[in-house]
Specification:
By secondary structure, the chain is an all-beta fold. It is built from no helices and 11 strands.
Length: 114
Amino acid sequence: QVQLVESGGGLVQAGGSLRVSCAASGRTFSTYAMGWFRQAPGKEREFVAAIWGSGGTTTYADSVKGRFTISRDNAKNTLYLQMNSLKPEDTAAYYCYVPARNSWGQGTQVTVSS
């Protein structure tokens, strides 16, 4: 099991930026593909972005493409999501996920005010 702890959420105005982080336990962090998902109140959890173990391959949901950047620091066992040009519709709890271990973090809340 991989333990995941998100941080960095908060309140930001529309058009602003925020970076959320996900610290992972385990010595095999670099071998895992990882992803970010988000869930707004009353909505289903949705995919945001994913990155493969080496960090060379990434993919994004159309709704965030060009605004969000997923990255990882394997030396620090940490996953990041840089969010720019934030919109009120980006308001959600953001979760990191490791598909190979079906592990989720507890989430970090991002609120974008208009």
